[in-house]
Design a protein that fits this description.
The complex is a heterodimer. By secondary structure, chain A is α/β, with parallel strands linked by helices. Helix content of chain A is about 45%, strand content about 10%. The longest helix of chain A has 30 residues. In chain B, α4 runs parallel beside α8, α6 packs across α8 and α8 packs antiparallel against α11. Classes of the chains: A alpha/beta, B mainly alpha.
Amino acid sequence: MSRNRSVNRWVALAFGLVLLAVGCAGDGEGGTGAETPSPGPEAAETPAETPDETPAAQDSGPVTFFSTQLAPVEESEKVRNTILAGFPGEVDFVGADNYGAWVDRITAEAEAGEGTIDLLGGLHGDFVSLGTERLTDVSDLMSELSDRGFSEDYVELANLGTDTPYYIPWMQATYIVVANKQALEHLPDGADVEALTYEQYAEWAANIFDATGQAKVGFPAGEDGLLPRFFQGYLLPAFTGGVVTTFGESDAAWEWMRGIWEHTHPQSVGFGFMQDPLLSEEVWVAWDHVARLKNALEQRPDDFVAVPAPAGPEGRAFMPVVAGLAIPATAPSPQGAQDLIAYMAELETQATTLREVGFFPVVEGDLPEDLSAGIQLEADAVRMQTEAEDALPSLLPIGLGDAGGDFNKIFADTFTRIILNGEEIGPVLERQAEALQALMEETGASCWQPDPPSDGPCQVG
Amino acid sequence: MAGQTSTAPAGVAARRPPEPDRRRGAARAQLLPYWLVLPTLLYVVAFFAWPMVQAFGLAFLGEDGGPTLEHVRTMVGDVQFTSALTFTLLLLVVILPVQFAVALTMALLVNNTRLRARGLFLYIYALPLAVSELAAGIVWFAIFTQQGYLNSVLERVGLIDVPFIWLDYRAPEQLLLAVVLAEVWRATSFVMIILVAGLQGIPRDYLEAAEVFGAGLLTRVRRVILPMLKPSIQVALIFRTILAFQVFATVIALTGRGATVLTAEAYRWQTDVRDPNVAAAYAGLILLLSIVSTAVILRLTRTPPEQRMV
């Protein structure tokens, strides 16, 4: 009897352990689950319809496409249902919540030596930070696609500082200003809304405040907002002609920011995408990324104007943003990824991308005629900004490696100290310049446009 | 449990005598509880203790593997550190008493046998428990934002002409009030549930005896209910304090970057700046604050042995 009882206990214990083991094993399988739904033998038969197009893509199941861009739910749905609709293979589009989530997953797959992601979508800067060792050399594909007419600058950028390309340009965007038409009557005398100066922009904000009693100019200074880009690509270069080399002399730019902030909507520190406060009319005038203004222009094209960013003493600085497509080194289906890249780089797909999500083509060819009124407004503003006589393109940081976040933090902290905490400009700039210089030394990044080229790390001025 | 394990071998011995067998059986029986605890222990070590050790490693080890305070210095020297710490502690100090007062009132109401639909009240009160922190933040944002429900109502009844900006970073007390309201709305029912459970454990005779001696409601609450609720209050206090240090989504949704808390800073250092060391230093600080406050609560709410219920 005692033996029986203890045997029973052991059986129970063993049963428990087996359950635990099965549970653990189940978890393990779950981790690589994305690979498992391969269509299996039937798939091998289907390519008969499109024999020479994407045989490999269909052999190995859906292409998993992981992107920092077009990640918000609405945009992701458009990618899945419209932009990718013409691709013969199956695609599993996954948007990353933020850059951190994106890089963490890719790094984890690389470290595990086994991947589930076939195609990466990201900004140029995302790939810079990720580093070339995680990516596949795409020179063959780049030469195959050379007839698409990518700009030479973008092809050069895709080399990530090496001699071979690691991503294929995908789409481009920039930042502009959108204003509610009710704000136009408060423009300063003699100001042309399509060619504003920073001085006029601040005066405009003050006029609106005086007339309505409300601060109706907004900046995306919230959690998801892109305000650091305003300083890096717009305000500082427009006032000083540089970003890093002139950082220490940017007093006037910060003085301007302090001035306009008095007539800036106080909820700006909560704004992420400026289209929302524009639509709710909490804000009448806003600077932001085109893709984050698109909904406002699309929904009420008759109520808004889209115009270039203001100009400072050194020119009309603006930041072109380029996104690319890359294949991770651990991609289970690199051929499928290549086919998908070729598809994304077709003029027609690029036109659909512009229509649906407001990112502009990187391939040569005319913009489609049938743009919606909102996208047309956006396209006109971007053209005016790029072709302005005083245009001053200011590139995304190059060569910072994975320190892009630190770079942004320096500008965000400068803003917090000077504008939100009201600290004195001089000492703050001195202190932040030290941090910036340390970052440049640490990463060894040389200067990028509009700063003059440097030998060795860029020197903070 | 201890009783079970010691009686089992005695029963076994009575039935089958062979000496070596019996001793082995007894030894096994004594080991059994440890075997049963083992899976949980492994789980806790693998998923809580080890990551915690790793986090401390990240926070206190330098690139060369030696101990360093560099990451902690970066954390303390950061422009957001003081405001994050202050706002977190302020939230705690304001939320806790409000929440306990409200939760106790709700619990007494639900526990009142003279109230007809008290079951219904319990369900209604418990509803916010099902709402996620972020969703609660967004709901309250829709109320407080400039074109939100609150301003619409105030404008309609003619109390204001121009929308008032509630979520103004220049008025931290307004931000604090908004977050406190959202948190009290969202998490008070959690405290209430614990208190209701405690209230139901108080024998009716005590309350009836108090009533017989002429104790009014307030006296009964102060002299009978509160002392007997002490263990429940202790549990609820510890939970709420720890959860208050972890508050995150409500603050982000309501205030953006207008106000910041420790968890938000940990998140930003990890995802925006990509510096897991400083993020781990923040996590370590949150853990430390949780441990210290738990110890303080345990100390303050200690029941002397002679007062303990057996």
